[in-house]
């Protein structure tokens, strides 16, 4: 093998390892989400692989691209590093009982749809939309008890 072939092989191996590490990060974040929520019986998240969970979709690299938990009666909070799901394109959690602060979501650079309305959130970060260059649809409530942090 000549040097260019070895370099190409090393580059492909590195890309493969980076994709694997990123998908493992997604799995860790999703396990944290599972731990922070009280799921109802119709939300089956028993498989160790979040890509096989109900209402969760992944791409061919096992990166989470969609979470659509709509009207499931889910309670709990969103973990602080939830915004690290960098390949997430659709986040629909509307009509549940999720409470606490909306975490920093600035790492969701591919997010196109954000629907968090009809929950019990009490505050948003000042940089809620920072980094969301692909965002096309946003649905949020502004209940009397929600504080919008200003920068």
TrEMBL record:
Q: State the GO CC annotations.
A: membrane
List the taxonomic lineage: Eukaryota, Viridiplantae, Streptophyta, Embryophyta, Tracheophyta
Q: Signal peptide location in the record?
A: 1-23
Q: What membrane topology does this protein have? A: Single-pass membrane protein
**Name of the featured protein:** Leucine-rich repeat-containing N-terminal plant-type domain-containing protein
Record's subcellular location: Membrane
Ranges of residues in domain Leucine-rich repeat-containing N-terminal plant-type:
24-59
Which InterPro entries does the annotation name?
Auxin_Ser/Thr_Kinase (IPR052422), Leu-rich_rpt (IPR001611), LRR_dom_sf (IPR032675), LRR_N_plant-typ (IPR013210)
Keyword field: Glycoprotein, Leucine-rich repeat, Membrane, Receptor, Repeat, Signal, Transmembrane, Transmembrane helix
Q: Which superkingdom, per the lineage? A: Eukaryota
């Amino acid at each position: 093998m000549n040097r260019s072939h070895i370099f190409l092989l090393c580059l492909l191996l590195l890309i493969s390892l980076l994709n694997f590490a990123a998908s493992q990060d997604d799995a860790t974040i999703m396990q944290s989400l599972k731990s922070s929520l009280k799921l109802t019986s119709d939300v089956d998240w028993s498989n160790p692989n979040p890509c096989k969970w109900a209402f969760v979709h992944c791409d061919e690299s096992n990166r989470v691209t969609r979470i659509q938990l709509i009207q499931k009666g889910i309670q709990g909070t969103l973990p602080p590093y939830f915004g690290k799901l960098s390949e997430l394109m659709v986040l629909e959690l509307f009509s549940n009982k999720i409470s606490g602060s909306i975490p920093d979501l600035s790492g969701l650079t591919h997010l196109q749809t954000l629907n968090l309305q009809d929950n019990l959130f009490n505050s948003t970060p000042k940089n809620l939309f920072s980094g969301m260059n692909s965002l096309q649809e946003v649905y949020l409530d502004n209940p009397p008890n929600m504080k919008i942090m200003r920068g």
